[in-house]
Design goal:
The protein has 13 helices and no strands. By secondary structure, it is mostly helical. It starts with a helix and ends in an 11-residue tail after the last helix.
C-alpha cells in the first residue's frame, strides 16, 4: 500500500499547477487576490468533481455484477483522488488565510498563523475530518481490504461528486453578493436535487442493488451484511445528512425572503449604510 500511496502522490503537484492556472486566469479578469484565489480554488474543485462523477458513471454503468466485475478506472481514479483531498485542505486554508488578512490582520507571524489555523479548524472541522478519513481510511480500504471486489459500489460513491460544481458556484455567487439572482436560485435548486440524489439516495440505491444481487428485499439487506459494512455506510451518510440539512435551511431562506428592492439593500447594505451579515 505504501508504494501505491507514493505513486498516487505523484499526482499531487498537478492540483497546485491547476490552481496556479486557474489563479492566473481569474487575476487576468481583474479580480482582487482574495476573490481570485477563492474562485480559482472552486474552479479546480469543480473540474475534479466533474472528472470524478464521470469516472464513477463509467464504472458503475459498466459493472453488471455488483461484486465481481472490475473496471480499470476504479483503482486509477482512487490513486488520483487521494492527493486531491490533501490539496483541498490546503486550498480551503489558503482561502481562510486571505480572508483573515483582508479583515485587517496583516501580520503573518507564528502567533497569527496559529490563530488562523485554530479558527480554520473550528470552522471547517467536519470537512477537514471528512477529507482526512478519505485519505487515511477509505484509501486503504479501497486498495487492500476490497481485494478487487465491489467496483460497482466504488463507482457509485464517486458519483457523489456530481453536486460539488453547484455547491462551488453557489459559494462564488454568495461571495459576489448575487444571492437574489435567478442564476443563484436555479443553481440552488440543482444543488439541492443533485446532493439529495447523489449523496443521500445513493445509500438506499446501493443497498437495493446488493439486495437484487443477493435476492433479498431492501429491508432485509442491512441484516444480511456484516455490522462493519453498515457502520461504514452510517459514518459516511451522517455528514451528508448534516450538510443536506444546511442546504435545506439555506434554500428555505432563499425562497422565503423576497429580494430587496432598495438600491442600498441590493448592494449588500442595510439602512444607513450598515453592512448586512
Amino acid at each position: 500500500m505504501a508504494v501505491i500511496f507514493l505513486f498516487s502522490c505523484c499526482f499531487f503537484p498537478n492540483f497546485f499547477l491547476a490552481l496556479r492556472w486557474a489563479l492566473y486566469h481569474t487575476r487576468a479578469l481583474g479580480m482582487d487576490q482574495l476573490h481570485a484565489i477563492y474562485v480559482a480554488a472552486k474552479l479546480v474543485s469543480s473540474i475534479q468533481a466533474v472528472m470524478a462523477s464521470t469516472a464513477g458513471y463509467i464504472v458503475f454503468s459498466s459493472c453488471q455484477h455488483v461484486i465481481d466485475d472490475q473496471h480499470w478506472l476504479t483503482s486509477a481514479y482512487t490513486e488520483f483522488a487521494v492527493p486531491y483531498f490533501i490539496y483541498d485542505i490546503y486550498a480551503m486554508f489558503l482561502c481562510h488565510w486571505h480572508k483573515y488578512r483582508v479583515k485587517g490582520h496583516e501580520a503573518a507571524g507564528p502567533r497569527s498563523l496559529r490563530t488562523v489555523t485554530r479558527a480554520f479548524l473550528h470552522k471547517e472541522f467536519l470537512m477537514v475530518l471528512h477529507h482526512l478519513c478519505m485519505v487515511l481510511v477509505c484509501f486503504p480500504v479501497s486498495v487492500l481490504w476490497r481485494q478487487g471486489k465491489g467496483d460497482f459500489f466504488l463507482g457509485c460513491m464517486l458519483m457523489a461528486e456530481l453536486s460539488t460544481p453547484f455547491v462551488s458556484l453557489g459559494k462564488v455567487l454568495i461571495l459576489y453578493k448575487r444571492q437574489h439572482t435567478l442564476l443563484h436560485k436555479v443553481n440552488g435548486l440543482l444543488m439541492l436535487v443533485t446532493f439529495f440524489c447523489c449523496r443521500i439516495l445513493l445509500f438506499p440505491y446501493m443497498y437495493r442493488a446488493y439486495g437484487r444481487h443477493a435476492g433479498l428485499p431492501l429491508h432485509r439487506v442491512p441484516l444480511a451484511l456484516p455490522p462493519a459494512y453498515n457502520l461504514g455506510a452510517a459514518l459516511l451518510l451522517a455528514p451528508q445528512l448534516y450538510w443536506f440539512g444546511l442546504i435545506c435551511r439555506g434554500a428555505v431562506r432563499l425562497f422565503r425572503h423576497a429580494p430587496p428592492t432598495d438600491p442600498a439593500l441590493r448592494n449588500g447594505h442595510g439602512p444607513g449604510g450598515r453592512a448586512l451579515d
